[in-house]
Amino acid sequence: MKDWKDRIKGDYSDLRGVCHNPKAGQTKEEMAQQLEYAARLNLNAVRFWMSQEEWEKNPEAYEKMLLDFTDSCEEKGIGIMPIFWNGNFIEDYTEAGEEEWKKKRTYAEAIICLLKSKKGLLMWDVFNEPFCNTYLGSASPEDYPRKKEKLAKDLRKHCELIRELDPDTPITVGHELSSHMDSTSDLVDVLSFHDYMPTRSRMEAAYQTAVQLSEAEGGKPILNTETGCIGRANPYDLELEMCEKYHCGFFLFNLMIEGFWGEIHGLVYPDGTIRDPGIVAALYGFRRNCGANRILARGNREGHALKAVKAVENVLKLENKAMFVSKAKSTDEILEAAEYCINILEPCELVPMWDSLSAQLCHYRSQKAEERDEWEIQRFAYDCAIRVKQAFLIM
Questions:
Q1: pTM of the prediction?
Q2: Hey, what's the torsion of the CAs at 272, 273, 274, 277, to 10 degrees?
Q3: Alpha-carbon distances of 226 from 114, 148, 238, 266, rounded to whole Å
Q4: Percent of the chain with pLDDT over 70
């Protein structure tokens, strides 16, 4: 009988992955475009959710979508980690009967037959976050251990089913916490957890728990298969630093900035633009200098901050045309002066980038001149100049 060491391929520390799902109705060209973003970011693997329910509705259409997606991955040299089942939506739990297990087997057999021959198949993720759901989350302290034990028993049966159907391909379980991995550590070939911890010390603790379990299991590889969330105080660049420190492969969540998770997750917008250049820099091994040797930017070293303020002051002056008649500069001229200030403020990192001034500038310029709110644009330019004056103590 094969041992886990016979199935794995190295320690997987070279995996630089991202979570990214195929979408119903998306063309193969659209799939390829988004995967091209992953390739440009030097990512080499995707982890994606599958759905037994959707497969059962129309196996032929669902399998075609999976093949289009995985073919596109293969063309880009991107490995795949498919997820069979998801634990996030368990609200109540009743042990599956014989008929339900037959359906699970039929679904799993079909997927394995479809994808096992793929060159890029890295491993099967049997279950995503089996203990992260309402069923356990709403349990009382007294009921929690009993309920968790029921889910763990069910989870282990799923692992055993996939191992029976495919004795060759490595399997893992994407646990919500590294402390949950011991529930399946004897059954999987690769240990994997998700880290959304909010501070460096708590991140360290999560990785150390994973390393200790790996050692106890004879050195099984570890992966962080979900990480990075700006809404959970879990910076992508810090997590990437942790993965490097612990020699741990990773899957960032999520490739695309869109949909339900768009406000707090994601690397790239559908049009190829990005939200945070720091994440992209970190993917290439460049991180912000937080040391004592950092050099603070001086945006007025050559007097350009002063010139930018003067440009706004000049453009906001009314031009006297005749008695009791004055004329303001055009909104194009005002926005030009505002940009002078913006191009001092943003490169010197003197303003928040959550809703950047340059993004607001682009919004105004995208409007037809006759539709612009002139007063609003004047206020915008004035605010930009005030920010520069305050930053550089210009009187």
A1: 0.92
A2: 110
A3: 25, 21, 14, 12
A4: 98
